[in-house]
Write a structure and sequence with these properties.
The chain is of the alpha/beta class. It has a domain of 178 residues: Alpha/Beta hydrolase fold, catalytic domain (Rossmann fold), CATH 3.40.50.1820. The protein is built from 11 helices and 7 strands. A 7-stranded mixed beta sheet has the order 1-3-2-4-5-6-7, sandwiched between helices.
Length: 264
């Protein structure tokens, strides 16, 4: 596995907070939320191994991703951190909290469940096939984007920002094959995931965030996850889909700030 530290960005001063990407994200997607946090916090963003900015062979397990996160925290001399993750990043955050509870002060896990949904990207044969082709020579990268985005955002948001999504679609179609190989690695992890047996090991105060229009992890997946974590609560963000970090960052930031303002 590649030993280089993940590509990352650090802004602001104060207690550290780590933001972990979903599958189709890069760390730039957190910008509106990071801007609101960095007024009083040291905000750490990164691309996971195999995402666009952190090249190299992706880990084949959640624990492998956790090890790359720990290496980054060590590089930044951060012993304990508040962790925020969405989608795949939330799974990495859950794994970090379960296996290294000494390093996680609190956890915000959004758009996620303990098991993969019956219908999802990791089980969608057409998405997987297109991703495999794109991992060879970037052919059909636009198809991967279209199929994933269709389930990530609410219909209203997709219609309102159609021009922006068209630009993004063309950009993703030009991403290198390594990017799509990284997506495949995440899909492989998701396809066999069963996190339920490890949730009781999470000791940090946790909030599980559900997006009301999430078509990737529809209700009651998030509420069920929250019930399985000893010190967890469940919060619903109304009006947004799976990609709430992009679709409604103001609402998500409000949930985060309310939770983080407490003294654990």
């Amino acid at each position: 596995m590649t030993t280089a530290v993940l590509t990352h960005q650090v802004d602001g001063r104060g207690e550290p907070i780590l933001l972990l990407n979903g599958e189709l994200m890069t760390m730039a997607a957190w910008e509106p939320i990071a801007a609101g946090l960095m007024v009083s916090r040291r905000v750490v963003r990164c691309d996971l191994r195999g995402q666009l900015l952190s090249s190299g062979t992706p880990p084949t397990s959640l624990q492998g991703h956790v090890e790359t996160i720990e290496r980054l925290l060590d590089e930044l001399a951060i012993e304990t951190v508040d962790v925020v993750g969405t989608s795949f990043g939330a799974l990495v955050g859950l794994e970090l909290a379960a296996t290294r509870p000494d390093r996680v002060r609190s956890l915000i896990a959004g758009q996620v469940s303990a098991r993969p949904p019956a219908e999802g990207w990791s089980r969608d044969t057409e998405t997987i096939a297109a991703c495999r082709r794109a991992a060879i020579d970037s052919t059909d990268g636009d198809i991967v984007f279209d199929r994933m985005v269709a389930s990530m955002f609410s219909d209203a948001y997709l219609a309102e920002h159609a021009e922006l999504f068209d630009l993004r679609r063309r950009a993703v179609a030009g991403f290198p094959p390594e990017y799509f190989a990284g997506l495949l690695g995440m899909f492989d992890i998701l396809s066999s995931l069963d996190f339920a047996s490890r949730l009781e090991r999470i000791l940090a105060p946790t909030v599980v965030v559900e997006s009301a229009r999430d078509r990737v992890y529809p209700s009651p997946a998030s509420a069920d996850l929250a019930r399985r974590i000893p010190r967890a609560e469940h919060v619903l963000v109304s009006g947004a889909g799976h990609g709430v970090v992009i679709e409604d960052p103001v609402a998500l930031l409000g949930v985060m700030q309310s939770f983080l303002s407490r003294r654990f």
